[in-house]
Structure formats: structure tokens, C-alpha cells
Amino acid sequence: MAEFLLSPPLLLMLGSVVLAAVPRNVLPRTVLRALLLALPVYSLWRFWGLDFGDYAQFELFGQTLTLVRIDPLSRIFVVIFHLAALIGSIYSFYVRDNFQPLVGVFYAGSALGVVLAGDLWSLFLFWEVAAVSSALLVWVRRSGPAAGAGLRYLGMQMVSGVLLLAGIVLLRHEVGAAPGWAEFRNLTGFLEDGGLGFSNLAATLIFLAFGLKAAFPLLHSWLIDAYPESTPAGAVFLSAFTTKFAIYALARAFPGQSELIWIGALMTAFPIFFAVIENDLRRVLAYSMTNQLGFMVVGIGIGTELAINGAVAHAFADILFKGLLFMAMGAVLYRVGHVNGSDLGGLYKSMPITTGLCIIGAASISAFPLFSAFATKSLIMSAAVYKEYFWLWLVLLFASAGVFHHAGIKIPFFAFFHHDSGIRCKEAPRSMIVAMVLAAAASMTIGLLPLAGLWFGTANPFYELLPYPVHYEVYTTTHVITQSQLLFFSALAFATLMRTGLYPPELRSVNLDADWLYRRVGLRIWDGVATAFTATHRTGYAVAGRLAAAALETAQRHLGPQGFLGRSWLTASMALWVAVLLAAYLVVFYWRLG
Amino acid sequence: MAQHDHGKHGGRTYWLDRKGNVAKVFYALILIDVLWLAADFLYKKKAEFDAWGGWADGGFGFYPVYGFVGAFLLVLAAKQMRRVLMRSEDYYERRRGGGSST
């Protein structure tokens, strides 16, 4: 029993439920918060003592379900999800209400359930729990736009769940038993059998279910729509889990699936155009998240050990630096009330610490040498080079210059520098700063560890956490120089565009994206269908009414008091008619006999 | 919540408040870029790709040119995208407004 209750997913989920149920006057807020932080810390400590293998298994309807399966791929996600739960909780202590960290830790538990699931049924269970609990983090903003965005978000998450369920059911039909670990690990084989059989369809449905949560192009707009509508803390939790466990699921089930290479390449490239013209700086980060997920998807598609290591390492680093950037913008949102690039500027005077930490996040996502993405994204880039994907490499290089442009420069520049907007506010609350410092320190550590290994021969515990052994040197002369050249000349392009006035001004606006298809076109179609239905219903009702009235009138004419059939008849005429009837009967009878 | 103050921050003038200093930052960036470009003379690169006569990743100044041109064109292209994609802030709130979509 303890194995179940103390497994990372259930410990975090049940723990947060128990803490939520404790009445406020029983437990002082500080004690409750200490217990809340103790949950991920204890869970990680306990997890660290476990060896690779299966835990918390049980029988259900004749099938063995495995809640916890630890292997090198799941282990690294378990570690980072615990860290994200811890950092997100600390960050969210800026509000007196503990609802957000409690839901956040619960959501983290469900995400742990996904990455530890040892069969597809368990995966599906936690997949759905994560969908619902994360929607609460959108709604917690309690605003009109957040309510709508949360509903659309939940709708899309449910679509992913239905696709996954349909895929699992078809797979069960195909393999003739509960689809377990072997199928989960080996869906690439199913997808590449090329036929239109059930297994191929099943694998395609599961591929789309994972792809929706990994924000594949055209399936991505729930992320852009919902995350920026959440609260400062809600967005930090949201940015950490759903998309990353989708990356895990893709890496588990579809490594080396060649379609992923070009899907991922598209994901790295198209969002950066949107990010340049987007005014809401947290929405810029959401686009930037799609762009970073693209790098991971490319890595999974390439599928070599180096590439998978790169994808997983980049997911780890992204949770930290994207979290840090969301935290910095969340601090601005909390202090100023909005994060519109058009109305901000000069905040470095009021929020110097947040500015500094945001710049560390910006340098990390941009893959500057010494910062985290340099030590992670490089693995994916090099994997593309080793496989001689020239055009892919050019796209990724363009996307790297682009990410520096919109996330590395645009975010800190328009929020904290640019022209002085005259906004004067307090520095971010202490809890926010502590959380940001932790994320910044972790990001820098990831970036510095390979350098320490090179200079001092020290071990790199981060690389040791990756699923495959790392035989890769990040800090080579060529690599440091070329990456710096790419980034500094990208910065020069930005500065030139700003000074010449060619840079498009930040404007209060909405830019159409794929969600336009269901928020506008879909609604129009729905309205059209509804109008047509109403018209048909009205016409049908009118026609039926007229027919009924005519029938009533005919009946009344014949059967009414004055009607032919309703009249009172004379007994004599009735006797006459009976006699006529009998005579006719006799004639027929004799005619038949004759 | 934030307050608006179009004067100096607590009576203090920051280094970046002076226009001349912003220009200094720009010139410093140009200097840094020239130095990074010059770094290409300091070591020997090995081209991984044969494309573009090996210039693509082995030639002089490839990364600076690609970074600058890529970022420059990115912004100009994105600016043109606004013509097609930009709508007013309340676009999605006007659900049954009908009429023009601009």
C-alpha cells in the first residue's frame, strides 16, 4: 500500500488534496506552505532511492497496470518535474490564497503519473487528470477572457484524450490483449507498417494525441490562447508540464519517426514571425515555447542517441529558462497589471533584480555560451549535422537567430528598457525573487557544468542524468565562436532596425492564428448551422400545423353535427339499407355457387 | 499597483536616460561584432557540409551574415504579416458583430 501512496504521482496528488482539505483555522499558513514544499522534496528524495524497474503494480479487469516504471528516460523527467513543482510553489506564495500552489502540485503529480506510467492505460488516466487540473490553473485568473480561454483549452485537451483513448482501444483490438509497455515503446513500428490497418490507424491516432499536447503546427493554438490568460503563477506551472510530458511520450513511442523532423522544423520557424509582432509579452513567450518544442521534436525525429539526449536535455533546460521568463513577466503583470509591450518600458529602474534575472533567462533560451540552452540545443544541432540534414540545419540556425531576437532581446528590451513609460512600481515580491533566483541558478549550472568538466575534469551530473551516455564536447572553439557570431549579429540586426525606425512598433492588437479556425470560422459555421436548423424547424412546424388544421377541418365537415356521417339517420332508411345489403349478399352467394 | 511618473525616478537620472549613451551602446555592439568577425581569422574551421562550396559552415563570415540577414528579413517579413493577420484587440469578443472582418 505504501508503495502506491508514496509513489511520486500519488504522493503529490493525494498530498495536495489532503492539505487542501485541512480547515484554514487548524493549520497556520506557514506550516501548510512548509508541508506543501516538503511534498516534492520528500517525493524526490524517496524516488532517488529507487532502482530502475517496476513499482506499484496492480490487477484491474484481468490486466496488470504499472503506475511506476523507472528507466533512464522517465528518470530525468521525474527529476525536473519535482524541481518545477517546488519552484512554482515558492513563486506562487505571493498571494495569500494557497489554491494555486495546491492545484499546481496536484497537476505536477499527474504529470509525474504520465512519465512514470508503465502501460498505456495508466498513461491515459494521468493524461486526463492533467488536462482537467491544468484547466483550473487557467480559470483561476477569474476573468472573462480566462474563462473562455480555459474552456477552449480544456476542449482541445479533451480532443487529445479522445484520440489517445481511440488509439489505445484500436491497439488492443490489434494486439489482442491490453496494450502495455511493448506497444508504448514501439509505436514507430506500428506507424511504419505503411498499411491502412488498425495498427497503423491506432498509432496515427496516438501520434496526433501526443502531437496536440506537444503543440504541433495547427494543433498549437490552445497553448498560445490559454497560457497567457492565466495568473502569473498559473502560467509558470502550465509552462512546465503538459508540453514536456508530450515530448516524453513522443520520445518514448516515436523515436526516429522521420515525419517529426519536418514537423519540428516547422515548429521552430513559424512561431518566431508571430512572436515579433505580438504585443502581449507572455504570448510572445508562448510562441517562443512552441519554437523550443520544435527543437525537441526535431531531436526525437532524428532519433540518434545524441539527438534524443539533446531533445530530453533541452526539455529539462526549457522548463527552467521558460519558467524563469514566465516568472519575470508574471512579476511585471503582478506589479503593473499588464504585460503589453506597447505600454511598458523603463522598468529596470523599478525592478532591477527582476530585470537581471530576466536577462539570465533570455541568455539561457538564446543559447549563449555559459548558459543552459548552449549545453542542450547544441546536441540537437550537431545531431542534424552528423546526419547531414543541410536544409534542416539551416532552418534550425535561422530559428536560433530568431529565438534570440524575440525571446532574448524583445522580452527584456520592451519590458525593462526601451523608452521610459513612466511606470513606477515596487520590485517583485520576495517569494517571486527566490523562485526566479533558483531557476536562474539552475539554468547557469547546466550551462557551466560542461565547461567545468573541460577545465577541471569534474563530472557532469546533468549529462549523467540523460538517457544515453554523452560523448560530446560542447565548448569547442568553433562552437563558441560561431554561436556568438550568430547571436551578436542577430542583435546587430535588431539594433539597426530600431535605430532606422524599420522595426515594427508594438501595437495593441490581436494577430490571427490557427485558433481563428474555431474561434471565428468554426463559430460562423456553427451559427449558420444553428440558423438553418431554426429555419427548418420553423418551416416544418408551420407546414405540419397547416396540415393538421386542414385534417381537423375535413373531419369536422364530415363528422361534425352537420356532417354527412354525423347526422341522425331515420330507422326506416336504415332498415331499407340493411335489406339492400342482404339482397346484394344473396346475389353474390348464388352467383358464386352457380 | 504601479504609479505613473514621467519625471525622473526618485530624482535620479540613469545612465541610459541620456540619448548619447544609447548611441554608445550601439557603437559598442558594432565593435563587439567586428571583433567576433575577426575571430574567424584565429582558427581553422572544418566544413561539415559540401553545400555552397563549403561556405555554409566552414567559410569566412557565414554565421555573421546568416545571423544578420536572417534576423533582418525575419522582422521585415513579420511586419508584412500584420497586413493580413492584424485585427483590433476586441476582435474575438465581437462574436456576432458580423460585417467586415477588419
Name the poorly predicted regions of chain B: 97-102
Q: Total number of β-strand segments of chain A?
A: 4
Q: What value does the average pLDDT of chain A take?
A: 90
Describe the strand arrangement of the main beta sheet of chain A, using strand numbers.
1-2
Largest sheet of chain B: none
Q: Which runs of chain A of at least 5 residues are low in confidence (pLDDT < 50)?
A: none
Order of helices and strands of chain A: HHHEEHHHHHHHHHHHHHHHHEHHHEHH
Total helical elements of chain A: 24
Largest interface: A-B, 62 and 58 residues
What is the arithmetic mean of pLDDT of chain B? 78
For the report, how would you describe the main beta sheet of chain A? Answer: 2 strands, antiparallel
Beta percentage of chain A is under 5%
Structural class of chain A: mainly alpha
Query: Distance between termini of chain B?
Result: 34 Å
Can you count the beta strands of chain B?
A: 2
Which percent range fits the helix content of chain B? 40-55%
How far from one another are the termini of chain A? 97 Å
| Coarse structural class of chain B | mainly alpha
Overall helicity of chain A: over 70%
Classify the oligomer.
heterodimer
